[in-house]
Design brief:
single chain, mainly alpha, two-stranded antiparallel ribbon
Length: about 425
């Protein structure tokens, strides 16, 4: 049963690649970790927990993603002629000013972290994880830290698509902002937190540099190796007792990876029937309920974290992308959500290919929830985060404060040999 679904997903992935010929295409990337998770479920002897219905949902969702993605590429909104690309004029003084303000505002917190690290004893992971509580930083700091990460990626999108002279004028400011962002990401050493910054960074680099599929594959491979190193460092710090009590650290690491890959899909197979219609919309409308709670002092909004269950010796509280929507209105609603998500990915992919900076930025940011579908929903469940991401993109790329864009309607010079759009100049 599981091998059949793996073969089906591989076939869908190959067919998608043959259609789009682009390794960075969401339709091509969509199934990779679903396939890995299904294979992993067999290595942890959890086949018996995988319900046939769950397998059907995963396979049907894969097809629906392809349909929605293709639909969004063909959809035409409005009747006017669409630009084939854009030229950009960068406001260099504005970027310099904002980076200086951000750097100055960030120095006190960075200084506090450095002093704490210098005066602490223990491994680096433990020191960093304890620093947040020990320093008692203001509540807004976590939001500020995330905004800096988003801002860094937006400015990199401008930098990588600007003319050579412009890049030279803002290079050191881009580096300063990037270093601050990396320090903030490292200050909370979680696997998903680091991945949510590193993956969009990699995709942004790929889609702004007209790379061949061979180079994209090489970058993906190197990125996976890099993430494995990060995964090991965090795993060894978080589960140090497992490594200390084992003579084979490699096997401990591989067991951790298998549980990380497959725990959610096994839990989904076990629970999707019992979770159907559990919340009746409380997941979908959680953000608005949380706003109501803040305004009226109520407590109707659900917590983001799910309950833990134990399946085949695995303890987990994540249940894949589909569970979030199944808990509200059942399987049909979850598959409809997959269709909407695929249309969003297709729209950003189409905009990125036309050279739209905002869509290029959104395309890279959407890579994280796409890859994490095997793990848990990172779309509607993180609506406040997405509002923040979109607002940062709008302020920087849509208001003419940082960059002005001029549409181009001559498509004779906007595609390279493989069909991807060149960098906007």
């Amino acid at each position: 049963m599981i091998w059949g679904s793996v073969i089906f997903l591989i076939f869908v992935t190959i067919a998608s690649y043959m259609r789009y010929r682009d390794l960075s295409c969401p339709a091509v990337l969509h199934n990779f970790l679903w396939i890995a998770a299904l294979i992993g479920s067999m290595t942890i002897q959890a086949e018996s927990e995988m319900n046939l219905g769950a397998i059907v949902i995963i396979c049907a969702g894969s097809l629906i993603f392809q349909i929605g993605f293709d639909f969004s590429l063909k959809a035409q909104i409005g009747t006017g002629e669409k630009p084939s690309g854009y030229e950009y004029s960068v406001n260099v003084p504005m970027i310099r000013m904002v980076v200086i303000i951000v750097a100055v505002a960030s120095l006190p917190s960075i200084y506090q972290y450095l002093i704490y690290i210098r005066g602490s004893v223990g491994d680096f992971y433990t020191i960093l994880t304890s620093a947040e509580d020990a320093l008692a930083l203001p509540t807004y700091f976590s939001h500020f830290r995330k905004i800096i990460g988003d801002l860094s990626l937006v400015i990199l999108a401008i930098y990588w698509t600007a003319e050579k002279d412009t890049r030279k004028n803002i290079r050191k400011y881009v580096i300063i902002l990037f270093v601050v962002a990396v320090l903030f990401v490292a200050s909370v050493p979680t696997r998903n937190g680091i991945l949510s910054f590193a993956l969009p960074l990699m995709i942004l680099f790929v889609c702004t540099h007209n790379l061949s599929n061979k180079k994209i594959f090489l970058i993906l491979f190197i990125s996976i190796l890099g993430f494995m190193v990060v995964y090991y460092v965090i795993s060894a710090g978080k589960y140090w007792y497992l490594y200390e009590n084992s003579s084979d650290a490699q096997s401990v690491l591989f067991d951790e990876i298998k549980v990380y890959l497959s725990g959610s899909i096994v839990a989904f197979g076990k629970t999707f029937k019992s979770h159907a219609f559990m919340y009746g919309g409380k997941n979908t409308f959680r953000f608005f309920m949380a706003v109501g709670d803040a305004l009226f002092g109520t407590s109707s909004a659900l917590k983001l974290t799910n309950e833990f269950i134990s399946v085949s010796g695995i303890s987990t509280n994540v249940y894949t992308f589909y569970d979030f929507y199944i808990r509200d209105f059942g399987v049909a609603y979850a598959l409809f959500a997959q269709f909407i998500v695929s249309c969003i990915h297709g729209t950003s992919y189409k905009g990125m290919h036309r050279g739209e900076l905002f869509q290029t930025y959104m395309f890279s940011m959407l890579s994280y929830p796409l890859i994490m579908q095997f793990f848990q929903d990172q779309y509607l469940s993180l609506l406040p985060t997405w509002i923040q991401i979109i607002l940062v993109g709008i302020v920087v790329l849509k208001t003419n404060l940082f960059v002005q864009q001029t549409p181009l309607y001559d498509d004779s010079n906007d595609r390279n040999k493989e069909g991807r759009i060149w960098r906007a100049t």
